[in-house]
Every structure is written in C-alpha cells, then in structure tokens.
Design goal:
alpha/beta, six-stranded mixed sheet, five-stranded parallel sheet, 29 strands, about 30% helix, binds beta-D-glucopyranose
C-alpha cells in the first residue's frame, strides 16, 4: 500500500510533524507506520552530499562528485539534449548516494549582471532558462531522482534576500520571471518546487497563496511538493495555508507545534495540513520506487561528459585574423600567463559548492597539447585582491605585484603567442551577496596592458561566473574566449578549444554590456528599504538593449566558430491545429571544419498595440554540420511563445497580426527574415460603463451600436470628429452619458452593451 494512502491513519500531531525536516537534509518519516524519511542534497551542477560525520550544513566537506559546468556555462550551450544528458549523470550520482531529491535546477532570470548567484542560473532569457531547466529535470528524474526547481520566484538578487520584496508588475512577472517555471512544471512535472526567500509584491514567496496555489497548482497543474528554501519561512501556519508542504531544514519541532496549535484552534484548515502531509508521504513513495537497478555511475564517463559539456559551453567572442586555433603540431612558443591557468576557477561559492572527483588546470592541458618545450608560464597576478594592512604591508604587496607583472611581461615579449587567463576572484562571486561592479581586478587589466605593450598576439581567456566589462580593451586583443566557470573538466575543455580539437560553439545566453549603467536594472538594483522595483518591466536582457537601441560589447546569442555558416531563406510549413509555427531554415557549413551552429529565431510584431521589444527569442535549434554540408534545420515556434500576458483578462493571449520572424546567428546578426500572419486570441473582455470611448470604438460592432444610439443627437457630431475623439477617447462611456445635451443615459448604454453580448 502506498504511504500516501495511509494519510488517514496519521494523528494530527504526526501530520504536523511531517511539515518540517528531520535534519538539514532529510524529511521526517512515520516510524510507527514504517514510512521512511527521504534525503535531499544540493545541486545543481553536481551532488553535494555531506560526508557522514561532517558538519550539518555540509559546507565543510561533501563526498566527491562530478563537478559539471555550472548553469552559467551550460546556458551558453543552448543545447537541451546535452543538458538532459548531464541531468541523467547527476541523477545517477544522486541515486548512488541515496539522495532522493537533487536541489536544482536554478532557473531565475539574470535581471542584473550583478546578482551574486548568476553563475547558478542559465540566462537573461526565460525561453533558454525554461528549455534547459526542463531538460535538466527530465534527465535527473529519468533516474528516479526528483528535481527541485528553484528559487520560485523573482529571486533575482542576493542582497537582503531573506526579507526584500521584489515589486513586479503582472506582465514581467508572468512573461519574464515565472515563464521558465511554468514551462518546466507543465512539461516535466518536477517532484518538487522550492519557494524562494524573498517576498513578491509584499508577500513572502513561501506564504503566498496566489503563487503556490492559484498559479502553481491550479493554473499549471503542479502535482508535486512545495519545499521552502532553507530557512525561508517566516510564519509556518501562513505557509502551510498558502500551499507550502515542507519547511526545511529541521526546526526542532518548533514549527510543527505552531501548525498543530493552529489546527486545533481552527486557524488552519485541516485540508491544508492533509495536503502538506500527503505530499510528504507521496515524496516518500516516489523515493522508494524505481531506478535502483542502475549500474554504479562511472566517474571516468562522467568526467568525459563534463569535458564535453564544458567544451560546448565555451564562447569564442572574438578571433581576429584567425589567431585561434593554435596549432598543436606547430613550432610557435606559447606564453601562458595568469594564475587562473594553474589554479582554475571552475565553480562559484555557496550552497552549490561541489567537491570534485578530480580537477584539471588549463596549463597542464595546454602543455599536453603543445609539449613542455613550447610552453612557458608566469602567474602574472595574485589570486586575492586584499589590500595590505599598514604602509609596510602595502609596499610589500606593491612590490610583489610589480614583480609578477614584470616576470610575465618578459615572458610575453619572448613568446610567439600569449594566452592570458583573466577572471573574477573567487571571493567576489558567491551566494549571499551581489557584486558591486562589473570590473576585473585592476591588477589584471594593468597586466594585460603591459603584455599588449610587448606582444599583440594575445588570446584572453576569461573565468567568471557573472559578466565582466571588457569594453576598453576588447578591441586590443585579437582573440577573446569566454570560459565562464566550466566545472572540473574546464581545463581540458579550454585546451580542446584553444587547439581546435573542439570547434567552439557556445552562444551568449546573456548580453555583455559596454558598461554597468547600460544594464536594464541599473537604477533599481539591488533595491533599498526592503523593496526592489522591477522598473524596467518586460525589458530584460536583450529585450532592453534592442528596445533602447544600445550598443553592447557582445550581444545576446553571439558566439564565433572556427568555421563559417551560411543561412538560406526560411520556409514556413502550413500552420497546424496546434497553432505552432514550423520554420525550415537551410544552414550550410561553408568552412573547412565540422561545426555546431545554434539557429536562433526572434519574433517581433511591428505596429503592436501592446508594449513589446522589437524582437524576442522565440525558438532555437542546434545543428552539427560537416564541412560543405547543408541541412534544413527545423525550428518550431510554439504558439504559446508568441503570447503575452494580459493583466486585465488575466490570461495569456496571442495578439493577431503580421509577425516578423528573424533568423539569426545572434540577436544582432540577423541573417534572414520571414513575415507570417498569425490569428489572434479573443481577450474575451466585456465592455462596460467603465470602458473608455476609445475602447468601445475599437470594437466594430460596439462602435456601430453606439453610433446608432446617438444618431441625430449632438453626440453624433462628436463621434464623427477625429479631433474630438482624440480628446475625449479616454473618457469612460458611463460618464459621457452625464454630459449636457448628450441624450445618452446609463440605462440606454447598459441595454446597448447587453445586446452586444
Ligand atoms: C539556497 C538553496 C539551497 C539551500 C540548501 C539555500 O541557501 O538558496 O539554493 O538549495 O540553501 O543548501
């Protein structure tokens, strides 16, 4: 008999007890009935299962696990199948360690490049976050391990995250911040969803009935369990009433007692407690079935997958004169400069910190390709950026910095080509706080200037979880590689790309702006006095830069290859019953190497009645092409992805009209275009006395009825004057009725509206 079916056998106290964790990482069971607790673990880019006997929170050491590329990197692959395969591997490792739920994926939108946790998130774009998040969930759950999609929702800053309220209007909330969650829930039915720390429009996400019940369960049909982020619940009774099922971590029975007391006093609906306890039992059911026959995960195979994924995540931003790839069999000497080549930064700090099964440094891997004779190394800068304590210490640091720089510059001057590793210090990127700026440490940029003064054949490789400013020097270096944080196999993956064993194919899933003050949330990040105003509305990421026509360093979707691709004219299949658009785009590989191209489709609706960006990503597809090969790539644009959220109608609608579908290699490299007529949805809005004259006149039948009604009265003249209509078009028709001489009455209008219905 399923545990869930035994709910009625539980006492109220037992039910209340199930609503909080047993420990930091386990739920409670019901010993009397043989119901086991289940184990959960972070997530997302590897398994962080605290070693037995380690500290409770497990930040001090977890069992070794494959450290796959964090989401910032995976996001740049734009490759759902790859992310699904990573998910399968993650699920297998979790299962092997007795972990029933892996706490990921993180699908929050990168509203500002400063968010301290951007390395854990996929993109500034909800389609990418949704598609890749869904693939991750599909992979993990295929191993009989549950996912926990987080952080639901509008958790886009770390500053004051336990209290701050994200103040978001309905359209951006639905179209940008909830959209990825909606896709994942409706397509993959994750076992759990994790409610975020922050408030949304004044209500804690963990205590918000609209979010957890109306939207998540009723509108999207979520059937799984809602767990709180760790320590996110302020009022446990309000949380259970709102739709939260499990408070994590353990509260030592404190919250259980409050829930029980509220039940007994009648302040908590027994149905809410039944739902919560029932979901915990259901999770125990899911955890104890399926998947146990898996062979043990193979660390070598997983490392190889981590390397493949990292290779597909590297973004080649610039490659003037074909400086890359380097020739593994050539004679050129290579100066590798930068401590990050030897001491890699490969993941961010906080709850997602993985203890990797092994770790590669790019330096060693470069030597493996080119041989020791060709490669020389200099660290060039210090890893930390702490100032010295006192004048003497500062002097000492200054001397050390100069010595490192001089040593590196000497090496650079002697080499044929210089590969400079730059990046963000680990201490700047972590859960719990945001960055203050987009700058690389001055010590590093000064080093780069010094290197460029003696040798211009420079490749810069970046290691960073959040976007850094590259304007100022981006045009001075012929080759620029965005290496993000690539996980434990990042070293070999970077060497694979530098030497051309892997043809780079990553694409920016976030814009690299020229400067911080250009970014969409600049004036409202991270908010103050406990409120974060999402003033930019739906204009997030590329939507913002395109709507404002702002120049950027590198646009959303950008990424070069060692080969070239040519796009033919797209064709549209006849639209089927589902309303989805099927676009066929011929893409040819016109270069000498096999390559992987990401075909991107953006939609715009010139003359739209609602505010919208000139283009937004509506679909993408990946194709691999041999040299000289051409293929027709099918890109499906779901009707739902053309929709906007109508806050008055309270639902998603497709606006009818002639859409412009742009096919491109980035949001600013549009290769071809096709127009398509799309039928609109009826908003189903009824006209009423509060509707404006303009709104009435916009509906042909209503306009005609109104004209008939006023025929022969002075108002008729008014309605035939465009100037007057422009002036009074915003007046509610009910008020028009009261105007002297109008001869309209509210009664007449009401019966006109009734007839229209
Ligand atoms: C983080 C979550 C994480 C949880 C458990 C929280 O602080 O926000 O992402 O899953 O801790 O470690």
């Amino acid at each position: 008999m399923a545990y869930r079916d035994r709910l009625d056998e539980l006492t109220a106290a037992e039910k209340a007890a199930l609503t909080s964790g047993a420990t930091a990482w386990t739920t409670k069971g019901v010993e009397r009935l043989g119901v086991p607790g289940v184990r959960v673990a972070d997530g997302p880019h590897g398994l962080r299962r605290p070693a037995d006997g380690a500290d409770e929170l497990g930040l001090g050491g977890s069992v070794p696990a494959t450290c796959f590329p964090p989401a910032v990197a995976l996001g740049s692959s734009w490759d759902a199948d790859l992310v699904r395969r990573v998910g399968v591997a993650l699920g297998a490792e979790a299962r092997d360690q007795g972990v029933a739920v892996l706490l990921g994926p993180g699908v929050n939108i990168k509203r500002s490049p400063l968010c301290g946790r951007n390395f854990e998130y996929f993109s500034e774009d909800p389609l990418i976050a949704g598609v890749l998040g869904a693939a991750w969930v599909a992979g993990v759950q295929s191993r009989g391990v549950g996912a926990s999609v987080k952080h639901f929702a509008a958790n886009n800053a770390e500053h004051d995250r336990f209290r701050a309220s994200s103040e978001v209007d309905p359209r951006p909330l639905r179209e940008i911040y909830l959209r990825a969650f909606q896709r994942i829930v409706t397509e993959q039915q994750p076992w759990t969803v994790m409610a975020a720390y922050n408030k949304i429009n004044g209500v804690y996400a963990t205590q918000d009935p609209w979010l957890l019940t109306t939207v998540l369960r009723e509108e999207w049909g979520f059937t799984g369990l809602v767990v709180s982020d760790w320590g996110a619940v302020d009022d446990p009774v309000a949380a259970v009433a709102a739709g939260l099922d499990l408070i994590m971590p353990s509260t030592d029975g404190r919250t259980d007692a409050l829930v029980l007391a509220a039940l007994e006093s009648g302040d908590l609906d027994p149905a809410a407690l039944d739902r919560a306890a029932g979901k915990v039992l259901e999770l125990a059911d899911r955890a104890s079935t399926g998947g146990s026959t898996d062979p043990e995960p193979d660390p070598d195979a997983h490392h190889a997958l981590a390397r493949e994924a990292a290779g597909k995540s590297v973004v080649l931003l610039r490659n003037e004169g074909g400086l890359l790839p380097l020739d593994p069999a050539g004679a050129e000497t290579i100066a590798v400069i930068g401590e990050f080549a030897r001491t890699p930064r490969y993941q961010g700090a906080g709850s997602s910190l993985i203890n990797p099964t092994r770790l590669e440094a790019a330096l060693e891997e470069i030597v493996r390709y080119a041989g020791t004779d060709r490669v020389r190394f200099a660290p060039g800068y210090r890893l930390g950026t702490e100032p010295g304590d006192g004048a003497a210490a500062e002097q000492q640091i200054g001397d050390e910095v100069s010595r490192l720089r001089e040593e590196a510059t000497t090496l650079a001057a002697e080499a044929d080509v210089v590969v400079v590793f730059l990046g963000l210090p680990a201490a700047e990127e972590s859960e719990g706080f945001d960055r203050q700026h987009l700058e690389l440490p001055a010590e590093q940029t000064t080093l780069l200037d010094a290197v460029l003064a003696v040798n211009q054949r420079v490749v810069v490789v970046l290691s960073n979880g959040g976007v850094v400013r590259v304007s100022g020097w981006q045009d001075l270096v012929p080759a620029l590689v965005e290496g993000w944080l690539l996980g434990q196999a990042g070293g070999s993956a970077l060497a694979d790309v530098l030497f051309g064993a892997v043809n780079p194919s990553g694409r920016l899933a976030e814009t690299i702006p020229l400067k911080l003050s250009d970014t969409p949330a600049y004036l409202d990040f991270p908010g103050q006095f406990g409120r974060i105003r999402y003033g930019e509305g739906i204009f997030v990421g590329h939507r913002w830069y395109d709507a404002r026509d702002l120049p950027v360093s590198f646009p959303f979707g950008h990424g070069l290859s060692y080969t070239t691709f040519e796009y033919g004219s797209p064709r549209l299949d006849p639209v089927g019953d589902d309303g989805d658009l099927r676009l066929r785009v011929p893409v040819g590989n016109t270069g000498e190497r096999a390559g992987r191209e990401v075909v991107q489709v953006y939609a715009g609706l010139p003359g739209s009645r609602i505010s919208r960006p000139p283009r937004q990503l509506v679909s993408f597809a990946v194709t691999e092409l041999a040299p000289g090969e051409t293929r027709e790539v099918e890109v499906i644009i779901g009707r739902q992805d053309l929709a906007y959220y109508h806050p008055v109608a309270g639902r998603w609608l497709v606006e009818g009209g002639r859409y412009q579908l742009e096919v491109g290699a980035s949001s600013r490299d549009i290769r071809s275009m096709i127009m398509v007529d799309v039928a609109g949805d009826d908003p189903g809005l009824r006209l009423h006395l509060g509707s404006s004259l303009g709104e009435v006149l916009a509906v042909p039948a209503a306009a005609e009825a109104l004209r008939r009604l006023v025929d022969g009265t002075p108002t008729a003249g008014m309605l035939s004057s465009p100037e007057l209509i422009a002036m009074i078009g915003s007046m509610p028709i009910g008020r028009l009725a009261g105007f002297p001489g109008s001869q309209l009455t509210p009664d007449k209008l009401e019966s006109m509206l009734e007839q229209l219905d």
